[in-house]
Design goal:
Strand content: 15-25%
Oligomer: single chain
Structural class: alpha/beta
Radius of gyration: 16 Å
Order of helices and strands: HHEEEHHEEE
Number of strands: 6
Strand order of the largest sheet: 1-2-4
Mean pLDDT: 82
Helix content: 40-55%
């Protein structure tokens, strides 16, 4: 049991530091997961009775400063966020057209986001 408590404690510390990086001067941490969940809800497509497909490919465009701090951990952070998206979809009985991926990326040229910007799409399985 001690092993699981230690893993849980590390995950909580990691999540807390992640949200602080996204906050970038805000008093309250930015709810990135909530934004990803809302993106699923907003872009849901009913394809058949009882089957609703939601985006599975997400790009989280970060300000330069935040991206520079997270670039070395982009893979684990993206996988953690993707896991949370999958959990939300399971709760809502949504389905995906392909594997879920959340990719952290730097700002597009000349378009520095104030905190972050989310782009999503329904990408079929290759």
């Amino acid at each position: 049991m001690t092993f699981f408590r230690e893993v849980e404690s590390r995950m909580e510390r990691f999540s807390d530091s992640l949200w602080r990086l996204f906050a970038r001067g805000a008093e309250e941490p930015v709810e990135v997961l909530e934004v990803l969940r809302r993106e699923c809800e907003a872009k849901a497509v009913i394809v058949a009775r009882g089957r609703t497909v939601v985006p599975n490919a997400f790009e989280l465009e970060l300000p330069s400063e935040s991206y520079a701090r997270l670039a070395g951990q982009a893979g684990p952070v993206g996988e953690r966020l993707a896991s949370e998206v999958r959990r939300h979809a399971a709760e809502r009985r949504f389905s995906f057209a392909g594997p879920v991926a959340v990719r952290l990326c730097p700002p597009r040229a000349g378009q520095e986001p104030p905190r972050y910007r989310v782009h999503s799409s329904i990408t079929p399985r290759p």
